[in-house]
Amino acid sequence: MCVTHQSLRASAYQWFHTVDTDRSGFINLKELKQALVNSNWSAFNDETCLMMINMFDKSRSGRMDLFSFSALWEFMQRWRALFQQYDRDRSGCISGTELQQALAQMGYNLSPQFSQTLVQRYTLQGGRPGIQLDRFIQVCTQLQTMTQVFREKDTSMTGNIRLNYEDFLSGAVTRLM
């Protein structure tokens, strides 16, 4: 296990220095977007890249140092592995059925209709139906975040909460934006 963790850190270190094209010692949105690609070699979308920078940028400067980038690197490896596990047809996209199975493995008991709605919402316009890796990460991370907000309010763990609209917006804004 230690060897694997060390090799992950070495890979993250090498990738950081490759991605840091301006040699500032930090990765910004532009550099991250240029470095991350989907299986069809398309760049990751701005929303997902910005979301990941916001998740790992502890200084709130809009950029990541090597330490933050290493955490992002490990995060990306886990999401990529899960994506590849459920992209059974190797199309580079997750279908509604594949997304449903991935979410079930993650512990979400959501309807097939909801999974299909997510796929329709996050499929690229004019592209093949399905969610690419960048949008898969975005969907799953947002789902985790919203679940965390829900659980904080569901203190009796009934699966039901009562909150007003502003409380809902506050939870969403502070976690997703």
UniProtKB/TrEMBL annotation:
It holds the Pfam family EF-hand_6. SMART domains: EFh. InterPro entries: EF-hand-dom_pair (IPR011992), EF_Hand_1_Ca_BS (IPR018247), EF_hand_dom (IPR002048), Peflin/Sorcin_CaBP (IPR051426). GO terms for cellular component: endoplasmic reticulum; ER to Golgi transport vesicle membrane. Gene3D superfamilies: EF-hand. Residues 7-42, 74-109 form the EF-hand domain. It is found in: Cytoplasmic vesicle, COPII-coated vesicle membrane; Endoplasmic reticulum. GO terms for molecular function: calcium ion binding; calcium-dependent protein binding. GO terms for biological process: COPII vesicle coating. It is a peripheral membrane protein. Its main location: membrane. This is Peflin.
